[in-house]
Known about the structure:
Elements: H1 3-13, H2 49-58, H3 61-67, E1 85-88, E2 91-95, H4 108-121, H5 129-133, H6 136-148, E3 153-157, H7 160-171, E4 177-181, H8 186-195, E5 198-202, H9 207-217, E6 224-229, H10 241-250, E7 254-258, H11 273-276, E8 286-290, E9 300-304, H12 306-315, H13 328-343, H14 346-364, E10 377-381, H15 385-397, E11 400-401, E12 403-405, E13 416-420, H16 427-443
Parallel strand pairs: 2-11, 4-5, 4-6, 6-7, 7-8
Antiparallel strand pairs: 1-2, 3-9, 8-9, 10-13, 12-13
Helix pairs in contact: 1-15, 4-13, 6-13, 7-8, 9-10, 14-16, 15-16
The chain binds pyridoxal-5'-phosphate.
Amino acid sequence: MSSDARDIARRLLAGTDSGPGVPTPAPTTSASPNRRTRPRHDPTFADHPDVVATKRIYGSLDEVFGAAGLTNPFFHPHDGTNGATVSYSGRELINFGSFSYLGLAEDPRVREAAKDAIDVYGTSVSASRIVSGQIPLYSDLERRLADAYAVDDAVVTTSGYSTNTAAVGYLLGAGDLAVCDSLVHSSIVSGTRWAGCKRISFRHNDPDSLDAVLRMSRGSFERALVVLEGHYSMDGDVPPLPELIEVARRHDCSIMIDEAHSFGVLGRTGLGVRELFDLPGDAVDIWMGTLSKALGSCGGFLAGNADLVRGFKYSAPGVSLYATGPAPSAVAAARAAFDVMRAEPERVERVQANGALLHRTALEHGFDVGMSQGTPIVPILVRDTDRAALASTAMMERGVNTTAITHPSVPAGEERLRFFVSSDHTPDQIEYAMATLREVVDSL
Ligand SMILES: Cc1ncc(COP(=O)(O)O)c(C=O)c1O
């Protein structure tokens, strides 16, 4: 490995996180209650610790990569769609970096639906929904999602991230407790900060740990909300949901499940972790999901009982209150994708079979697949930042796009290449990727 490449790999180490564990650099100044000694801050935020750290890490990456004859992989634009294949600067790659699990973001019917919605409603509803921004498309999709989760109602929103943040921020406050799986998404953590509640984590997917945390702390708080994901995006594992629900209910907790990577992917017909475990809709209180993964669009949703969803719609800032309604094209695309998913269950069967094939093939090639269970998310642990970054670059040279995930997105020592599998991958593509990765990893 050249020293240039090592340098680049080390720089990659410092900041690719989308998860909760981003370390904030120590502030350069400390706030003081004494007005006379209060430090002066640059009004342009040029001294903001995160702005400073980001500039240090990313500010000259184009030059650094360029000097090594490489392309900066961050914000690297692709030419067309981001499906089972992707094209960069005219070069087509087999692609495992897209969460279009059912190939629907690329589907002609979904694209057509988005265009038709623009023809009818324009590009924006130009108001928040509660005043004059409501269109029938919203309730069409909400009805489908509520039925999918066997609950009364749902609300669709403009962003999955802000849906989590706004929902938790709305539901909890000072004196309340959020008990989160240790691997929940950054958006949930942001929500707990917005709420001003106490946040405690329990060991990933461990009902005994949840029980221990709640035995210790439940009595000191008013409301308690247990938050988990239906399918974890870095690890490709599924929670033991019935057991976790049993513990949460025994301790008088509400439950929220983030179905971002579960809807369209898990369950016999893709209706998510509820279908997988054959649970009733009211087994948990809030089913949250995104339109951006299997549904091939952009936005989020919350589904639950009628009163709660009314609360989200009428009085939750950032869910739909004080926020412009989602783009008509985005909601029309998600609605069309939902209908294709229901009409073509073979897509769900294929993505599940492809996930199992990639997992099995990875094991046959001797890879460490961590906690993954053969779902359409398969991490291949290389346990070293340089190796992860270099393997990703070398795979790209051999025609395969996959993402290096390094600390702090995952704990140090668990660096990996992460494979998202789609219904459109062929067995040949999957086998080629694993055989190529074996050669690449052996050559590092
Ligand atoms: C588990 C989880 N929840 C929420 C989100 C945010 O969703 P969106 O990207 O649609 O805003 C993501 C994003 O990838 C996610 O992985």
